[in-house]
Automatic annotation (TrEMBL):
It comes from Gaopeijia maritima. This is Carboxypeptidase-like regulatory domain-containing protein. It comes from the Bacteria. Gene3D superfamilies: Carboxypeptidase-like, regulatory domain. InterPro entries: CarboxyPept-like_regulatory.
Amino acid sequence: MNTRTVAASLAGMAVLLGCETTAPPLCTLQVVPGIALLVVEAATAAPVLDSVTVAVRDGDFEEFPETTGSGGFHAAHERPGTYEVTVTHPRFEPWERDSLRVEAGVCHVTTVGVTAELVAR
């Protein structure tokens, strides 16, 4: 076999064995929230830190997440769906968001960020 034949064979093998394909994604073991919610007072934009109740619903699924601190809440971890989010607090009007869509990504859900601006009663 001559040098030209070997070079042509190697070039052909490179095309067949991966130069034209993409590698699968490298997914992490991280658990990603579908919803990242920030609860603030509408008048001041200050985080509401106490007595907040959050409910997240999608069909039969229901979750009441705990705060992550500084007015934040994470919910719907690795769970695509269409959610209704309700925020209640004794000093504020109830806040609700319907049809909040969380999409599935290649490895994890795509987090949807939302801010609940609470209005004083």
